[in-house]
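Data deposition worksheet. Section B asks for the primary sequence of the deposited chain exactly as it was used as input, without tags or linkers unless they were present during the calculation. Section C holds the resulting structure in token form. Section D is free text for depositor observations; keep each observation to a single sentence. Incomplete worksheets are returned to the depositor.
Section A, Depositor: J.P.
Section B:
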Amino acid sequence: MLTVALVGCGRWGAHILRDLVTAGVGVVVVARDPAAVARAGDGGAAAVVDSIDSLPAVDAAVVATPTSTHADVVMRLAQTNIPIFCEKPLTDDVAAARRIVETAGDRVFVMDKWRYHPGVVALAAIARSEELGPVCGVATQRLGWGHPHPDADAAWILLPHELAIGLEILGEIPRPVAAAAEIAGGRLLALTGLLREPLWLRFELSVRSPERVRSVQLRCRDGIATLGGAYDEALRIDRTTGALRGDAVPEPEFRGFANTLPLVAELQAFISFVQGMGPPPKSSAADGLRIVRAIAELRALAGIAVGA
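Section C:
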């Protein structure tokens, strides 16, 4: 049986544990907090240890600790020479992300689950095929209420999703050129930004929106393809060639896609890679560094102070 270490078993770590166990993987959880230890036991962990140093021999590791601890945990695990799957973002520090790439870049991967969302994958296929004409750019919204992450602000928690979506659809992360932030009491409430060249990525994120919005639009010369929510089962396709002629608004097309849970898909990709049965996960450590660097640049463009 494949054995994987899961470092951290908080709210999201419990979901990772569930899906690893369902996939037939033996999971050894590293946790000290009593609540996390209880979640690990209830979730079917094969064993629970209180430190990385206490881990038995395992085939791979998944890191699901708070963002501010990622760099230290990954670097400690890197000494074992096993494949590592780290929750996004890789780190919240460019220099630390660079050290990970230099030290263990060939065996560290980032859990960018939106690159496995079937709707985002379908948008990427439309972009590559150019069935709606050449791609202009991608526009995303991620709006919601509250921010339950005391160790990192909303830019570090939410923006990795938007940049990973851009990477999947556009094939690259464009250059950050502008950003504006809403800050109150030293805390980041919202961030809007633009990346471009050669294509553009425009995003809006907020943690004080009473309305929950998760939207991704692929905007092309001849039409717009929209994923309207994380749990949508179809893309909306609007063909817009008649807009400048004053034609009547055409009826939208709805195009279904596979109903695959992104977390399950990315974990299966990692398991297959560890078993030597598939390619590596989509986001490499180098991709993770690019995302960390872009977030740092966007924060600077928005005038967000370090620690805000």
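Section D:
The longest helix spans residues 154-170.
The mean pLDDT is 97.
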